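Bench notes, afternoon.
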Amino acid sequence: MELIGKQHYVLPEGKIYLNWAASCPALADTSAFFEYRKMKSLNREKNAYYDFLDDEVRSLVGRLFQCESSRVFIAANATSALLDVLDRWLLRHPNSTIIKTRQSYPSLVLAGQAVQTHWVHATDAGYLEAIAACSGTGIVLIEGCDYLSGRRYDINAIQAAAASKGLSVILDASQWPAPNLHLQENMAIIFAGHKWAGGPNGIAIGMIPESFPLDGRSGTESLNRGWRLPLDTFSFKPTAARLDAGGGGNPYLNLALLHQSLSLLASVGRAAVENHVVELATSLRSKLSHLNVQLLPANRASMVCFQMPFADFGSAAEDHGLILTSGLGRVRLSPAPFSSEKDVDDAVAIIERMIS
């Protein structure tokens, strides 16, 4: 049974979609798009509508992650959200250590920053050992799960270990909407808008606790980067909105679409979403274990990964009617709230035919 009906999404006709961790299909309801187009052509109403979107999205994120809406900021994508936080943190803490895996943010560039990177294995032990060995200031960059294998990290244990050493954490929750993850004094959270959040490409959300050490800059670079305010009121914002996307303001069409998708998710709750996708992934994993595929280790994951049986497996699967992610030597299937046990059974049958 689906948690959220398939009729709510624009799904590829005649295909099984198990690719939620990569991208969520668009919502079938186009009212948010047309409301945005209507308001954009107005003057006084337009700014009130933009304020409404700003407030509503921050409020929805606050409800989903149990934080104050004032701790929420809006970015163009998850990497820019991470850099918004990391860059400011490093300005307060130069000559620090960044703890991360090699596969996460491989193109991360910190121009002019004197930092040392401690590369770790993509395991809980890898992170915990690096945290224990860190003798100075440092920051941990971590995703909710290893996107190559689907294995979850014990974020609570890693966050607590970092806190005990005085280290900060930036968590990328783009692929894992776990209900027990919330802001901590030493941990900021970011997530992409186009994955489990169900919005479009071109928007992301960040959350920073009030105690998170930011704003090492001075002068204009510490000012509000938004554009919808009188020119004589440029001043430092004490809320997380000071990190909002600049260069023309927030992406309001994307914000309207994200507001619509987050409202749908909030109607069922993060916990229900989490339980649904994990149950389907667990069932999928169990049924795939009877086939001739080499499953990668995972623990109560919301996705299932196995080694790629042959080149171009992803393209071949799509030809057979199954949409998934493949690459880097592995295949990844990720159920969604609109997925059902029948989707799981049909996907397993397709994979069995493909490898037989």
